[in-house]
Each structure stands twice: as C-alpha cells, then as structure tokens.
Design goal:
- This protein is an alpha+beta fold.
- Among the domains are: 74 residues, Serine Threonine Protein Phosphatase 5, Tetratricopeptide repeat (Alpha Horseshoe); 73 residues, no CATH class; 130 residues, Cathepsin D, subunit A, domain 1.
- It has 16 helices and 11 strands.
- The strands form 2 sheets. It has a 6-stranded mixed β-barrel with strand order 3-4-9-5-8-7.
- The longest helix is centred in the first third of the chain and has 45 residues.
Length: 396
C-alpha cells in the first residue's frame, strides 16, 4: 500500500514539473514575441509622422532606418546645430574672395568671429593683416605686422610677415623719396622709429625727411639715437645745413629772379584757366585728360576719385598705401598710388605719386597739381596774361 502511494506521488510530481516547464517555455516565447511586435507597432504606427520625418532628413526613408543611421552617427549628435553653424561659416577661400571684392566691413566681422574660436589661426591672422593693410594707414599696417611677428607662429608664417614688411616699406620709401615727398616720408617713418628706435634705417630716413623740411631740431633729436661720429648721420647734417644756407641765399634773390625769369628763351608757356581764385592747367594721366588745379602749397599731386576710376583703379595704378593727409576740409585717410605715366607741359614723368581724394574734396576738378611735379621746374605765374612760365631745372 505504501509502495503504491509513493509511486502515485512521484508520478504527480513529475507531471507537475513537466507542466511547469511547458508553461514557462510558452510564456517566455509569448513575452519575446510580444516585445518584437510592440516595437514594430511603435515604429510604424505609434509615431509614424515623427519617424518618417527623421528618417527622411537624417537616415533616408524606406532604407532600414537604424542601418542607415549607423553610417552617419554624427547626424544624431545633440550638437547638430553647431555642425550646421560650422557649415555656414565662410571658408578661408570665401574670406579671401571677400577681400579681393572689397567687402571690407563684412570681412572684418567674419574674421573677428572666427578668431574668437581660433585666436592663433595663422591663415586668419595673415588675412586680417592684409585687410588692415588695405584699410588703414600704411604705418599702422606695418606696426600691425610687427605685432603679429611677436606671436608664437610658425617659421614659415614669420618669414611671410618679414617679407611683407620689407616689400611694403621699401616700395613706399623709394617712391616717396623719388618724388621728394618728405612730409609723407616723415609720416611713414615716425611711428616705425618710435617702435624700433634702434633701427638705423628708420632713423636715417626720418632724419633725412626732417632735414629736407628744414626741421633741424627734430632732425637732431632723431640722429641722437646714433653715435655722434656716425658717418651717415654726419652726412645728413652736412646736407641739411648746406641746403638751409642755399635756401636762405635763394630767398634773398627771389625778387630779382622773379623779375628776370620771363626773359629766358627756354621758357615754356602754359595757358592757365582762372576760375575764381584758382588756376587750372591741363595734364594727361595715362591716356586720360585731366583738369588740374595748380596748387603750389601741395607737396603731393592729388587726383579725384572720379579720375581714379577712369584710370582703371588698381588694374593700372600701383597701390603704395594709405596715409593721413591734410585737405581744405581737414585731415583724411587717403590712398597713395603710383601713376605710371603723367604728362604736363609737354614733359612726361614716370611713376608719379598721387593721393586719391574723395569726391567732396574735389567736386569740380580732376585733381591738384602739386610740387612733386611742379618742383621739377623753375616756374612763375603771370597773372595779367594767365600764363604759367616753366623752365626745367638743370639738376633734374
């Protein structure tokens, strides 16, 4: 009896165990299937519009979303707006194009924004320096290059900066000196001498400019930076005091010279057009006729912005730099350019410097004929006949 009872209990336990195993397997299978179905339903119906929107714009519609998204994981980056902003940031090529097109204000803003993110970006710093070169006075641009050279830049960048400084300075110094524009020579060298008082080239060039303007005290102040027995410094002193003596003698004889000037057989007579209290003469800049105001008080010839445009701007003229110049309306920042060919009174002069003045400064004329051209002649005005008498100087 006990044996039968034990067998029955074992059988019941076995059946219960088998049943539990079977039910567990079914429940597990059902739970797994329900999960898959639920996920599918959620992606296809529960949020269909949102999913399709993301799929179309990021992963690609109808291409098996997750597989395609895995190929472009950055598309799901929560900083995707930053990526879009980067895509909208102008490239260096685009910034350079802005510089060449003359969009200077917009370019300054773009460079400033990018330098906030990359303050030591060499391409951006060099581009900014070129922008300063085109929009600020030349001495300011040169000082900016010197400041740039003090940053921890690569050797190649420093070499570019050094070459740029040498080219800009040498071109301007040679052009201004050739045209005897000593006031502008002084303006070029004054800030450079202050920045580098031990630079002998700046010292000598500034002292020479003061010497030709007979500013003896300023000349000596500058030459004090050199040893007193320096050969080059002494040569400038000798030239300055000899010139001062010669000018004093010339002033003593000025009246007699003026009275006898018209007797020379070599004189060239140039007709003057009187407009108000001004005299005008005709000249030719490149192939463009120009009506120029005779201005013996101007050290540098000037052209109007209209004539500048007619001459082809920088396609045909050489840009020297921007300088602060005095006009009847006050001090202005103006471009200094080099005109390859300038004809006046039958004489042709090469590489004549000219300041480009705004239209409001020269509303009714093409320019001012200054002493860098008139100084090539001994001249006199006959106001009764409206005639300009010219005699080319022998030492020219």
């Amino acid at each position: 009896m006990n044996r039968i009872l034990i067998v029955v209990v074992i059988a019941l336990l076995s059946a219960s165990l088998v049943t539990n195993i079977y039910l567990w397997q079914r429940l597990s299978s059902y739970a797994e299937g329900g999960s898959v179905k639920s996920g599918y339903t959620s992606s296809s119906t529960g949020n269909e519009s949102n999913t399709n929107s993301v799929g179309d714009s990021v992963c690609g519609a109808g291409k098996g979303g997750s597989a395609n998204c895995n190929k472009n994981p950055t598309q799901y980056n929560p900083k995707s707006t930053e990526l879009m902003a980067d895509a909208q940031t102008p490239s260096l090529k685009a910034l350079t194009a802005m510089l060449e097109a003359g969009y200077y204000s917009q370019l300054a803003v773009e460079i400033n924004n990018q330098l906030k993110l990359s303050p030591l970006s060499e391409p951006l710093l060099l581009l900014e320096a070129e922008l300063v070169e085109r929009t600020k006075p030349l001495p300011t641009a040169l000082i900016n290059y010197y400041d740039l050279a003090e940053l921890p830049l690569s050797l190649s960048a420093l070499k570019k900066i050094q070459q740029k400084v040498e080219n800009l300075y040498n071109q301007a110094q040679a052009q201004l000196q050739k045209n005897h524009q000593w006031e502008l020579v002084a303006k070029l060298n004054e800030p450079l001498f202050q920045r580098q008082p031990d630079n002998k080239e700046f010292t000598l060039n500034l002292a020479t400019a003061y010497a030709h303007q007979e500013k003896m005290t300023l000349m000596e102040d500058v030459l004090a930076a050199l040893p007193f027995n320096d050969h080059d410094a002494q040569a400038i002193r000798d030239m300055a005091y000899a010139q001062q003596t010669a000018n004093t003698d010339a002033n003593d004889d000025e009246t007699n010279t003026t009275n006898t000037f018209s007797d020379s057989a070599d004189d060239i007579q140039v007709a003057l057009e009187r407009i108000g209290n001004q005299y005008r003469v005709e000249a030719i800049a490149l192939n463009q006729r120009a009506s120029m105001i005779l201005d013996t008080g101007a050290s540098t010839t000037a052209i109007s912005s209209r004539l500048f445009a007619r001459l082809g701007k920088m396609r045909n003229l050489t840009f020297i730099g921007i300088f602060n110049v005095q006009t009847a309306a006050g001090s202005v920042e103006a471009q200094l350019v080099k005109i390859p060919k300038f004809t006046f009174a039958g004489y042709t002069f090469n590489d004549v410097s000219a300041i480009v003045l705004p239209e409001e400064a020269l509303p009714d004329a093409d320019g001012l004929l200054g002493m860098n051209v008139l100084g090539e002649f001994d001249f006199s005005i006959l106001p009764q006949e409206d005639i300009l008498l010219l005699n080319l100087r022998e030492n020219k």
